[in-house]
Write a structure and sequence with these properties.
The protein has a single domain, classed as Rossmann fold (3-Layer(aba) Sandwich), CATH 3.40.50. 42% of the residues are buried. The protein has an 8-stranded mixed β-sheet, sandwiched between helices. It is of the alpha/beta class. Helix 1 runs parallel beside helix 2 and helix 1 packs parallel to helix 7. The chain is built from 7 helices and 8 strands.
Length: 189
């Protein structure tokens, strides 16, 4: 594992270290606008972004927004993606495997937000929910449901809850937020 740190360690608990899972793809404006707004709120409120470290796609939009609003950036990349890592993050950690990356993202986070993404984002989200279901963490998790992107996931989880597949109520695992302000309010609440 490689670690670089151009600033002090993570901020104290009075501000949050917000882990964001999202796509590294270039996406439509409907998604980038919501992500930029969410990132601006994170930065303005003095929170630190903990994210996959990439400086491309929606990950870049999020990092730019947090940094432009005065927030700090803690990236956790993986060896095979290190060439896409953001050069001016306050801290960048590089892990050998995706599993180690996910573990460190959760370890460094006080709260978790899931924005739009593909199979990697879905994997990260379900892993975090599974760990929470088993009491491995109690951190708030919110899904920013931009343009109804996660309506299907929300319906599937609601069915799992209704039919007894979840040992804890769905409301105890995750919240779905319709907009960035609601997502940040849940994380801070």
């Amino acid at each position: 594992m490689v670690t670089t740190d151009s600033a002090s360690p993570l901020k104290p608990r009075k501000s949050l270290n917000v882990c964001v899972f999202c796509s590294a793809a270039e996406l439509d404006e409907v998604y980038t606008t919501a992500a930029r707004e969410f990132a601006g709120l994170i930065g303005k409120r003095g929170h630190t972004l903990v994210w996959g470290g990439s400086d491309v796609g929606l990950m870049k939009v999020i990092a730019d927004g947090v940094q432009d609003a005065g927030g700090r950036l803690v990236g956790i990349s993986v060896d095979f993606l290190h060439h896409k890592a953001r050069a001016n993050a306050d801290r960048m950690i590089v892990t050998p495997t995706l599993a180690e990356r996910k573990a460190l993202l959760l370890e460094h986070a006080d709260a978790v937000a899931v924005l739009v993404g593909g199979t990697g984002t879905l994997d990260e989200a379900t892993d975090i929910l599974e760990l929470k279901k088993h009491g491995m963490h109690g951190k708030p998790v919110v899904v920013l449901n931009t343009a109804g992107f996660y309506d299907g996931l929300q319906a599937q989880l609601a069915r799992m809850d209704a039919e007894g597949f979840l040992p804890v109520p769905l409301s105890g695992l995750v919240a779905f937020a319709p907009d960035p302000a609601a997502a940040v309010a849940h994380l801070e609440g």
